[in-house]
Amino acid sequence: MASLTWDWRNKFIDYLAEGKLPVDPKESRSLRTKVARYNLIEGKLYRRSFYGPLARCLRPGETDYAMREAHKGTCGNHFKAESLVQRLIRAGYYWDHMDEDMKTFIQKCLRKGIGKRGYQLHMGSHHMSVRHPDRDHM
User: 19-66, pLDDT tens digit by residue?
Assistant: First the structure.
C-alpha cells in the first residue's frame, strides 16, 4: 500500500500491490512497461539493475543522505555524477531522477569547496562506504 504522501514510487507500489493502473491509456501503457524492472518485497519497492543487487527505491527524504554518504570522501577525486550514481546503485540505492539530483548535488559541493586559490578545500577519505538501506535498517 502506498504512503499518504505522494512520491514517485506510489504508482509502482499501487500497481504491484493492487494492480491499479492510471486512467490515461498512455500513462497506463508506460507504467506496465516500466514496472517490469521493479519488485515489491515486504512493502518496499526495489529496482533491478545490471550493476548489482536489487536497489531499494528511496523516498525523497532519503536521497540527500544517500548522496552525502556517497560523495563524502570522493569530492577531492572529482568523480563525475554518473560514477557516483553507479556506486549508489551498486550499494543498493535507487530513486527517480538520480542523475539530475547527483549533478545538482555535486555542483553545490564544488561551489562550496573551491577556495580562493582554486583548489579543493574539503577532502576526506577516498574510500566509498555507503551503507545498504536494508542491512543497516534505514
Answer: 999 999 999 999 999 999 999 999 999 998 776 678 999 988 888 888
Q: How far is CA 110 from CA 74, 93, 104, 105, in A?
A: 12, 23, 10, 9
User: What is the identity of the amino acid at 68?
Assistant: R
Q: Cell 490515461, residue?
A: 24
Exposed/middle/buried for residue 103 (C-beta within 10 Å: 0-12, 13-18, 19+) = middle
Strand, helix or coil for residue 71: helix
Give the range with max mean pLDDT: 6-15, 26-35, 41-50, 75-84.
26-35
Contact 18, 12 (CB under 8 A): no
CB burial of residue 4 (10 Å; 0-12, 13-18, 19+): exposed
What Rg value do the Cα atoms of the chain yield, rounded?
17
